[in-house]
Write a structure and sequence with these properties.
By secondary structure, the protein is an alpha/beta fold. The chain is built from 15 helices and 22 strands. The strands form six sheets. A seven-stranded mixed β-sheet has the order 14-17-18-13-12-19-20, with helices on both faces. It has a six-stranded mixed β-sheet with strand order 9-8-7-10-11-21, sandwiched between helices. A three-stranded antiparallel β-sheet has the order 5-6-22, with no helix packed on it. Bound molecules: adenosine-5'-diphosphate (ADP).
Length: 488
């Protein structure tokens, strides 16, 4: 066992208008999901604090959006550099509060650095347009920052979900109020400490932790918040969409997913399994892009299944500070949801090939651990076919022809990530065109990069993050029509 480290010294307060301030509500404990231990108590607020933060962001907006571009870009790069310098600290904090292995936490921090630098550079490329106009007229399109942004983030990628929202927002010239997930506030605090250190002017980025419903309502009801960006469950996304209707704000929603992973008989089996296992067990399956329904063409059923079970048998589980493939799940509720899906599937005829239950003895006793699992014989009668699985479970479904595979893959409310493995270019083209998903990995699982648009269709949400499409979410388009007087 590697030497385990404890929580480094860290702020525990809200960050509003450049000040660390105590909230008015009772503090909340942050729990280490690998040990069940309390790490620290953090300050909590509600409507009152959120409205103060919105006010601060409103005040800072003309300062930040009007700042000399070079200066703004330099601050953004400085934030990226500080994140890089503090990568080990940020990764440790993440592993302690979220559970993922340190190696993965470091990978997430690396993505933060990339996102920050990429968006910093993109601030220089907010190109407008001129459109051919009648003589003595000019048609011009300007892109301007939308204003104050409210951002709500989840616990599964507690650092990168924040950077993914804040970096394009502030790069566009917006100011932000962030509400991180209740169980992973420390990753947010650690980033805000670096915003402060980098010299981000006061009020540009504000941090409010506390009552989710009060903060969400305050964002939705405020006419000053011109954009709401949310990553989380479809249910909460629907609620925020509805609540935001009154103030007609622009909204981006990155919601649930239930990714199909389609394997055709000509795919190289071991390479495909390696890609599947790596993607599935990343963050212990707690990702909206996790492959959740594995469709395999009948002729390779036996070989694929045997090799998959062997690979899953090699997945190691433990405290994220040790050298393991996966850590615990986030909490007890997460285990209950998975237990319920597996019980339902078994009752309806599915067979557990490996795993299928909790790990709760010995070193696993106080954490929320679960066995890496493969279940065979999954059908559309089972909850697991339609409900998002946020955990280490691989359900296998077999198919006979390409149209059946596409039909089954599209048989979902969700439409975020999808994957297809085949050497046949015609087939890859057909499947990637017909899949009703915002993201398609053909012979790979790399659907998320700083420069490429990320987002879903159907109940997986609205809008895109990353890339130029991600920044556009924080901009308004203004049309300016100028006429030149031709006579004095
Ligand atoms: P998850 O299942 O990933 O926890 P949630 O949608 O519950 O998904 O949480 C994602 C984020 O949304 C978290 O920051 C959470 O605190 C927040 N949240 C939960 N309920 C509400 C709400 N009613 N209004 C606004 N935000 C909410």
């Amino acid at each position: 066992m590697a030497t385990r480290q404890s929580l480094p010294e860290i702020q525990t307060k809200l960050f509003i208008d450049g000040q660390w301030v105590e909230g008015t509500m009772d503090k909340k404990a942050v729990i280490n999901p690998a040990t069940g231990e309390e790490l620290v108590q953090v300050s909590q607020g509600g409507k009152e604090e959120t409205n103060k933060a919105i006010e601060a962001a409103k005040k800072a907006f003309p300062v930040w959006s009007g700042m000399e571009l070079k200066e703004r870009v330099a601050i953004l790069h400085k934030v990226a550099d500080l994140i890089e310098e503090n990568a080990d600290r940020l990764a440790l904090i993440m592993t302690l509060e979220q559970g993922k292995p340190l190696k993965e936490a470091k990978g997430e921090i690396k993505t933060d650095v990339e996102n920050m630098h990429w968006n910093a550079e993109e601030a220089r490329r907010v190109y407008g347009e001129t459109i051919p106009a009648p003589n003595n007229h000019k048609f011009e399109v300007k892109k301007q920052p939308i204003g104050v942004v409210g951002a709500i983030t989840p616990w599964n990628f507690p650092s990168n979900m924040i950077i993914r929202k804040i970096s394009p927002a502030i790069s566009a010239g917006c100011t932000v109020v962030l509400k991180p997930a209740g169980n992973t506030p420390l990753s947010a605090i650690a980033i805000f400490e670096l915003f402060e250190k980098a010299g981000l002017p006061k009020g540009v980025a504000n941090l409010v932790m506390g009552s989710a419903s009060e903060i969400g309502e305050a964002f939705a009801e405020s006419s000053d918040v011109r954009k709401l960006t949310f990553t989380g469950s479809t249910e909460v996304g629907q609620l925020l969409y509805e609540q935001s209707g009154q103030t007609l704000k622009k909204i981006s929603l990155e919601l649930g997913g239930h990714a199909p992973f389609i394997v055709f008989k000509d795919a190289p089996i071991q390479q495909t399994i390696d890609a599947l296992v790596a993607m599935k067990f990343r963050n212990n399956g707690q990702a909206c892009t996790a492959p959740n329904r594995i469709f395999v063409e009948e002729p390779i059923k036996k070989e694929f299944t045997e090799k998959l079970v062997k690979a899953v048998g090699e997945v190691t589980v433990g405290n994220g500070q040790d050298d393991v493939t996966v850590g615990p799940l986030i909490n007890e509720e997460a285990r209950e949801t998975i237990d319920a899906q597996i019980t339902d599937a078994k009752e309806k005829g599915a067979e557990v090939l490996i795993g299928g239950g909790r790990l709760d003895e010995g070193e696993y006793k106080d954490g929320f651990f679960y066995q890496p699992t493969v279940i065979d014989g999954v059908t559309t009668e089972m909850d697991i076919f339609y409900e998002e699985t946020f955990g280490p479970v691989i359900p296998l479904i077999f198919f006979n022809d390409e149209d059946q595979a596409i039909q089954l893959a599209n048989d979902s409310h969700f439409g975020l990530a999808s994957y297809v493995f085949t050497k046949d270019l015609r087939l890859a083209e057909k499947v990637s065109t017909e899949l009703e998903y915002g993201l398609v990995g053909v012979n790979n699982t790399g659907v998320s990069q700083s420069e490429t648009p990320f987002g879903g269709v159907k109940y997986s949400g609205l809008g895109r993050e990353n890339g130029k499409h991600g920044i556009e979410e924080f901009q308004e388009v203004k049309f300016v029509h100028t006429t030149y007087f031709t006579e004095n």
